[in-house]
Recover the amino acids of this structure.
């Protein structure tokens, strides 16, 4: 069986390319049986699911997925008085829809001859911050990155700035994953976990940009690496940071398969070549 992994396709931002055609041809050329998207395929769950349904019509591979943060984005709504209405409930609804969908890797782990492959979105809890766990969340909530720069605040949490919501979301994600890991351990197969978020700050390339260190907090949680170690996970496919890498960290092979925004690509005019370069293929 040949399984391909990719993420951060952002097909609505990268609108110069026909991704249905590109992925169908890529899977045909490489004899891919299952194609797994690790989140941020489009903005909002409806667009993302529509893309998967369209792709499935012409793609030889079975399309599977886990949600990223962009799948949870909802349009900011205003009531008659012009006040913003919370979008948090809507985001949660779409998250659950993706997690329970027939394409969900979280609901349908894959078993090959030697591997069991699990999926979970993951989240961030500011454990990438050097001063973690002694954090002042109120102070963090007032930082510019949190208030202005980080769009999750607006489009997932209904413009509510409260970093503790993310801490709770991370805990829920860890709890779901631990249940899957406990069951996977019993199969005696090698365990691979697909997450949208990063499991350790060791996956981050350090860039000297304004607010970069604060923004790095929003890329994942170190508690995922701890959980991977507890259950002897051999491999993690991750994304979200748009920083492709493949590294062995504390005995775990971690591969970032972010396709990223068009301007970040090497082959700006050739999506198929960029996909081929980004995908990780497991043959088993
Ligand atoms: Fe992304
Ligand atoms: Fe993301």
């Amino acid at each position: 069986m040949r399984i391909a992994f990719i993420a951060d396709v952002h097909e609505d931002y990268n609108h110069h390319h026909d991704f249905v055609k590109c992925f169908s041809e890529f899977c045909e050329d490489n004899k891919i049986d299952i194609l797994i998207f690790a989140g941020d395929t489009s903005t909002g769950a409806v667009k993302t699911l529509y893309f998967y349904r369209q792709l499935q019509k012409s793609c030889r591979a079975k399309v599977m997925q886990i949600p990223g943060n962009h799948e949870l984005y909802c349009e900011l709504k205003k009531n008659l008085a012009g006040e913003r209405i919370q979008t948090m409930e809507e985001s949660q609804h779409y998250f659950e829809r993706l997690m329970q969908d027939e394409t969900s890797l979280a609901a349908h782990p894959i078993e090959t001859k030697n591997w069991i492959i699990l999926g979970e979105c993951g989240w961030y809890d500011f454990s990438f911050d050097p001063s973690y766990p002694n954090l002042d969340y109120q102070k963090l909530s007032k930082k510019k990155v949190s208030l202005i720069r980080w769009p999750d605040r607006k489009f997932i949490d209904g413009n509510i700035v409260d970093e503790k919501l993310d801490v709770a979301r991370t805990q829920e994600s860890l709890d779901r994953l631990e249940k899957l890991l406990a069951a996977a351990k019993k199969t005696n197969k090698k365990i691979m976990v697909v997450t949208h978020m990063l499991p350790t700050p060791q996956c981050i390339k350090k860039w000297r940009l304004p607010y970069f260190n604060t923004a790095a907090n929003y890329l994942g949680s170190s508690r995922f690496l701890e959980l991977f170690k507890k259950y002897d996970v051999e491999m993690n496919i991750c994304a979200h940071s748009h920083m492709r890498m493949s590294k062995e960290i504390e005995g775990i092979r971690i591969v970032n398969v972010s396709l990223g925004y068009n301007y970040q690509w090497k082959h700006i005019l050739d999506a198929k070549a960029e996909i081929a370069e980004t995908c990780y293929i497991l043959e088993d």
